User: Fold this.
Amino acid sequence: MNFKEQLKDYIELVNTRLSSYLDYENGYNSTLIESMKYSLFAGGKRLRPVLALASYDLFGDHICEVMPYACALEMIHTYSLIHDDLPAMDDDDYRRGKLTNHKIYGEGIAILAGDGLLSYAFEIMLDDASKQKDPGPYIRSIKEIANAVGISGMIAGQTVDLESEGKVIDKKILEYIHLNKTAALIVASLKTGAIIGRAPERDVKCMEQAGLNLGLAFQIRDDILDVTGDKGKLGKSIGSDIDRHKSTYPALFGLETSVAYVKELTENANSLLVRYKDRSDFLLELSNYLTKRES
Amino acid sequence: MNFKEQLKDYIELVNTRLSSYLDYENGYNSTLIESMKYSLFAGGKRLRPVLALASYDLFGDHICEVMPYACALEMIHTYSLIHDDLPAMDDDDYRRGKLTNHKIYGEGIAILAGDGLLSYAFEIMLDDASKQKDPGPYIRSIKEIANAVGISGMIAGQTVDLESEGKVIDKKILEYIHLNKTAALIVASLKTGAIIGRAPERDVKCMEQAGLNLGLAFQIRDDILDVTGDKGKLGKSIGSDIDRHKSTYPALFGLETSVAYVKELTENANSLLVRYKDRSDFLLELSNYLTKRES
Assistant:
């Protein structure tokens, strides 16, 4: 299977499983489920679950083992976007070319849809872990994910990001925001695949390092696209970071330096992935694809 | 120890442990931690952790085993209050006589403080579970708690509550709201204590049934206090349910019927608790105290 076929295959696996998880109504919670589905199926790249599946495939043989965790990662990512888009946060009307959750369902339901996705992610993972004979790697994965999205991870990054709007911040704070708001969940995705694939500890560490480089590269590419991107391809406004007086890599260091840094980070990630030889072809192509992406 | 001493003892245990969990700053996330602390130490009754500790004490001998879960229950309860109070939800300026989180820190930080408390609750529980030799009961407890607060529990109840504002709803929907928004976490608290205390399955079921009755009684008492209560004692406005055109037990059935129903539910709970003889004195007194509480 070539890169594009494999990517399509992974995404289909994730979408099918996500659909079955969201086939969940009890006659009362239909608005909640509908609003969760709206954002979960609004055209996301499925990057985090794909990273978890591809990382798992380096080490394990039964990809279904990692599916609940891959889907949970996408739910958590979607929750973070719904809350980020709220008027009290980034106040975005569009994402991926569609109206944001609160523009459709109102702020109250949007907050609850985010809360619901975060809780449901844990429900799904815990349900799976509670059925395992040897729950160790599963509990460890849920813990890694919880740490990545918690108050020393994603939420901390989002808080500092919110507090930094309109302020001039230094490289250290900007890197703290990027590492926590974006890279932490990407690291957790790659680590989860490795841990559930029963990878040796040095390989789990290797995935962690690759994730840090990839995650940072991914966010800086995002910042670059906010300056140079095409609104049609991105599905959201261009220049919104500038409008909100957000400090970004391009704003602090210029476009050229930012592009070079993305290249350097991607090469760092690739040098870690290449040791898995043929098995890591997919992840290497994905890494290069993310560097050049236009959306 | 008499009831009041025991209650004080439990609350002190919880407060000390919560303080140590929130002693957690890394130089960047201080606003987040401060806002989480603000609501966590704003005078809550600690009902859910106390229920978990008291339920544990019916069966187990090492109360420290249940402490992370008891504290997590209080964090989750606090998260739900912070989000409920937001302008897009109940739009409350005061709770327990103090300004609500968003009135102090703004809506953005308040949303993140709620998200942070929910995530941190899972972090704490998973950290504990991952260290256990026999993680079964711990994973089961986390799963019970996740289910109780998730999209077939608390969040579903909150969604239906939000959707029902200004509408006339029937008893079935009102009971759905109360059971999910309030009783589910009270049930989970009592069950968690029993499960981690290694109670036999029939006792776990008994705690579940007692929790359902107590949880419903607790919420209807809340509705009654919204009509008859004293603002000074309650620390929030009286009549806010009526102002928001919320359907409540007193609104649907009148005060007298509501008071009688609280009594009946409390007696149901007590008839389940009394089987543990002397050991359940505390829970019986707590149950009666909740029925008569003025705040």
Observations:
- Chain B has one domain: 3-292.
- Chain B touches chain A through 53 residues (CB under 8 Å).
- Chain B has a mean pLDDT of 94.
- The first helix of chain B runs from residue 3 to 22.
